Amino acid sequence: MSDSNETEKKGLNAKDVTLKTMIIAALWIGVLSLIKAFWGLLSSASFGLDMKEIVMSGAVIAGVFSPVFVSIILDKVRDIKVGK
Fold first, then answer.
1. Do 57 and 36 meet the contact criterion of CB atoms below 8 Å apart?
2. pLDDT in tens, 32-59
3. Taking the complete model, does pTM exceed 0.90, yes or no?
4. DSSP string spanning 9-72?
5. Phi, psi (degrees; rounded to nearest 5) at 54
6. Sign of dihedral through CA atoms 14, 17, 23, 28?
């Protein structure tokens, strides 16, 4: 006798996807910034990415999934107004 919870498919949760994407974007910026900071010790050539490019690429990674996050917030506000 299987329980209905056991047979229910586990899908991706929007909150989890958004959180993971924000973490990935933060790690992206952090790791590339550290590499850029210590690149002079490793090589005489320049790193190739400016800090502006590193931060903008991380912001784009996070920004792609921000509509998911905004949608979650708007759903909560709508539920409060409707009274669910």
1. no
2. 999 998 888 888 888 888 899 999 999 9
3. no
4. -----HHHHHHHHHHHHHHHHHHHHHHHHHHHHH-SS--S--HHHHHHHHHHHHHHTHHHHHHH
5. -65, -45
6. negative
